[in-house]
Amino acid sequence: MARVLTKNIDRNGKVLDLAAYERAGGYEAVRAVVGKVAPEKIVDVVAESGLAGCGGGAFPTGRKWRAMPSRAERPGTRYFIVNADEMEPGTFKDRYLMEGDPHQLVEGIILSAYAVEADEAYVFVRGEYGRAIAAVTEAIAEAEAAGLLGDLRIHVHAGVGRYICGEETALLNSLEGKRAVPRAKPPLPMVSGLFGCPTVVNNVETVCNVPHIVRHGADWFRALGVGDEAGTKIFGVSGRVKRPGVYELPMGSSLRMLIEGCGGGMREGFGLRAVLPGGASTGFVGVEDLDTPMSVKGMAAAGSRLGTGNVMVLDDKTCPVGFLRNLQHFFAQESCGWCAPCRDGLPWVEQILAAIEEGEGRESDLAVLAEMPGKMGPGKTFCGLAPGAMASLETGLKMFAAEFAGHVRERACAWA
Amino acid sequence: MSTVEAFSVRGPAAAIDYLRCLQAERGYISDETLAEAAATLKMPVAVLDEVATFYNLIFRQPVGRRVILLCDSAVCWMMGRDALQRRIFERLGIGPGETTADGEFTLLPVVCLGACDRAPAMMVGDVLHGDLDDARLDTLLGGAA
């Protein structure tokens, strides 16, 4: 099976340096394109490739780039920003890409910045990713010394925590030295982003795809996926499977292939109960959905979302109420507090789940929980954090209805 | 241009970078450090404190020489992070948010460390450790406490 983004990464090997990356064909695209091909041609090929944002939003990358006013329309500083603030629970793909093949990211930044005519680039990496920060910083220095950056300046910003920094407008506030609260849209960052300048924010994996698309073309990229799907995807699988890890598969591969084929299936003594297909902000799917394609369309048809494509497997020996309580604790803690439904609603959800798990839940609590997705779903809050939190709650209440009822009836957790 | 001058020129936009830099030198951001930084950045102390208190990795209280960041997200929870937290309490006598009496360790919960394939995971200082169990934890903490 074609591996594109991870083909140079050796799980136990060293970080690929400049020489090794160039031996593998690295920077060929930069040498062939920068200063030689018009930037809009690069935007066109990325748009035609069908590349969509890999950080969870799946917004078409070409459309995002085209939303940036041209340099003629908006002279002055323009920014290209890599969102490497990987904090979605269950997600560990960007770490793998940055630690294993940082030059691939740097080449992607050079090409993307050239395409959108940006002169300054930032890589916003979460502060805990020390190895990734070191690898990317070193790769930028190597590329600069080799004259590959041209006039582009690439800065690495180490974050200081908070999940909300992954929301692109909150990320911009954080880069400006402020609290990371989301901004109102419009204006979109492409029109008024960092310090009010035109700005594109793309996820690490998205940017890593760009050199390959520029080198091999849109048709090649489209042919990589299953059926109508374009490209490959860095999936991940974790929980009580035999071989948890990061796996690159064609976009649209089935959930079963990922969990059973790559992950080796469940460990002895554990059964598969349910799956969160793309991080904490996606809804549960069940055993009956294992043959669903891991794609935006496939996961939507199963009532969930592709999200980050990093799968968390819930086993049959873990209390699903406790699992949901953990997820909602995360969201309640990481709410930035900017809008009231999220700030007040999420702790309420967490407290109710805690009471139920500890055997103090009441029948009426279940009705209150069931109302929450309607109060904190899409369109009810300032950004996507609370709607993301509601995805697992809404699907979990239905899928684990018997377990919820059991906790309330028995006034105890059967897994404790 | 000195480091302080460089931050001063950037002003409030450098708030996070400067706090991070000062914390690396001094361990945490005391009230005095905060006031000093606000003066350098030419911004009100209260506004800088809004920034400082927003972020998980800016410490407004003293912490130990080594901060243990124990992942508390879903996969590590499933794979036994609560047992690790109990073991840390047995070995070091500290719960979440507490520092050992000798000032060596502070234990803090942290959002998903992106090491779900090696759960449960934690960081000690700058180093990530995965696939933890009591035995590995004991080795890591060494002769501590």
Give a short synopsis of this structure.
The complex is a heterodimer of chains A (416) and B (145). Chain A is of the alpha/beta class and 416 residues long.
Describe the secondary structure blueprint for this structure.
The complex is a heterodimer of chains A (416) and B (145).
Chain A: H1 18-23, H2 28-33, H3 39-49, H4 61-66, E1 79-84, H5 93-100, H6 102-115, E2 120-125, H7 130-145, E3 153-158, H8 168-175, E4 199-203, H9 204-216, H10 218-222, E5 232-239, E6 245-250, H11 255-262, E7 272-276, H12 296-301, E8 310-315, H13 320-334, H14 340-357, H15 363-376, H16 385-399, H17 401-410
Parallel strand pairs in A: 1-2, 1-4, 2-3, 5-8
Antiparallel strand pairs in A: 5-6, 7-8
Helix pairs in contact in A: 3-6, 5-6, 5-7, 6-7, 6-9, 13-14, 13-16, 14-15, 15-16
Chain B: H1 3-10, H2 15-26, H3 31-41, H4 45-54, E1 66-71, H5 74-78, H6 81-92, E2 105-110, E3 122-124, E4 127-129, H7 134-141
Parallel strand pairs in B: 1-2
Antiparallel strand pairs in B: 1-3, 3-4
